[in-house]
Model the fold of this input.
Amino acid sequence: MNDPALHIIRVISAAPLAAEKAEAIAGRIAEQLAIEHFQVRTELDPSLIGGLMVFAGGFRYDYSIRGQLNRIAGRLKAHRSILPDDTMAQPELSRLIHNNLDDALSGFSECPLAPEADDILLSGSLPEDADIQPSSRRMVDRLQETLSSFTTESTVDEIGQIVSYSDGVAIVRGLQNCRSNELIMFSSTVYGIAMNLEEDKVGVVLLQQDDSINAGMYCKRTGTTVHVPGGKALLGRVVDPLGSPIDGLGPVLTEQRWPIEYPAASIVDRQPVNQSLHTGITAIDALTPIGRGQRELIIGDRQTGKTALAIDTIINQRGQNVYCIYVAIGQKMSTVASVVNTLQAKGAMDYTTVVLASASATASMQYIAPYAGCAMAESLMYQEKADVLVIYDDLTKHAQAYRAISLLLRRPPGREAFPGDIFYLHARLLERSARLCERMGGGSMTALPIVETQSGDISAYIPTNVISITDGQIYLESELFFSGQRPAINVGLSVSRVGGAAQLPAMKKVAGPLRIKLAQYRSLASFSQFSSELDEDTRRQIKTGERLMEVLKQPQYMPLSVADQVIMLYLANRGVLVDLDIEDIRPFLLDYLRLLHGRGTAFLDEIAAGGQLSEKAVAEIDTGVAEYLPRWMAEHEEYGTTD
Ligand code: ATP
Ligand code: MG
Done:
């Protein structure tokens, strides 16, 4: 049996080192670490170039030239965003410099030493014949000098050794002072997050896939959690959850960093939601209005237009001083590429960042993606005092990624095999959305999480969790989608618990009767097939309802301004459209709005500025329609017959 109290201190040098010198060095380190019983093992590793490295008590003391070069390279990499001003003005030049710097530095990768077959980190036996090499006087003097002059702590790393590694999860021994969620470095390109802290080992989930990771390798603590770049430099970019660009447009030039896990704003730092965030989709802005700082869930089966709603909302934020962050979790690359192309084509990338952890990314990347997006939004909200909209598409895949990680870490599975803290996972993410008070700058973060259901089952585990965390939900239905009612919003099941307070007065006025009429229509709709046997009043209610549903239809990428929405809904409520055929309703309304815009009517601006729908405006609309409708119908009929 090995003596558990006996520590092995490995002294690795670039050139042969005398045994007594190695003893002296080990002795000093043992003193620092309060190690009483130890044995020294000397090793030779010319790849250190010069100097030495000592492994003792779970720490690595690096006094080697290779270590120094690595640190210099690391520092250069970290600070490369600070370039002279004139290169900033020339993006091409700056990109060239960055790329060359990357090439030049790629040779320096922090590669932890290859382990010995019988290497034991903290205690254990010595190999029988520890071969002691002769040394040169000068070398030792220099080493001693290095050692005695060594004061900075940056070269002392707390290290651990991989006991087992599979499916992206490494069980590491050592790392005794490791903290929860700390970033662990395996090599210069491979990092992991410490998720399970046990008495004598740590479960680390690797962020990158790397075939070179295997049992016996060393890793080290970084003393920090995951941070992502923040600020406006990210706008217009597509980045991975660590903030590294994946759009081929060069590095993100910013010094701002923000931790991916950050406490939610406290209650005194907040104010009630009081400003609306218009989605441009009539059904949402009228019936489930969203306020800045609100969390509104978009929920529905697959292929029901969930992403389409989110993208339309982003497109509608043009010129509204709202920055957008779209987080794509576990989606196909091709889907996300088409989203990015659409945003670009609509000029929405100017104020948008896309965070992508695709289906092929590791589960850990998918797990941190929403937190990374949230951190980027937070940096804009707190530091730039801006209004931000963040979309998590979707949290079902996020929960599944976390479930995969948890099962690999052997945490006990609960309902639907999800771990017990799955609710906390989403609650701590969505609680970070806020409307900050003026003292804090008055910024806001509005969140639109998306959840996918299985055949409309909103009582499954993840949907019920997220419904209870958010301030309302927009429920999309396959049946409506396929019957042509798009966006396929189920008006009865969709609610917004706080947005009403932020709704513009004119919209509030027209939306009130709309809700009642739609409810009446729903209760009567099933009778519509017996229309000939119904009394005149009921028939009219059904007819109005059908026309209201028609007004709520909207094609993709065609967000409407609030004023336009108000006028459309006003006309629908008035029953003006009853004489029109269903399929004529949208063309007529669009033509009429075009006419109003052409006349430069003042009340359109008034409504948008938060004014009421004044009596004068109402009269103007009424007389306008009374005159225009017959003309339009006549023209249309004529066109129809000659066609
Ligand atoms: P998934 O579950 O695959 O993520 P999804 O619910 O996000 O799907 P989308 O990808 O947004 O659904 O939309 C599905 C399809 O429906 C797309 O082809 C989209 O073009 C179409 N679509 C969505 N909204 C509308 C709309 N308002 N009008 C017409 N077509 C629409
Ligand atoms: Mg989608």
Notes: The CA atoms of residues 69 and 108 lie 7 Å apart. The pocket of magnesium ion (ligand 2) is lined by residues 306-307, 393 (CB under 6 Å).
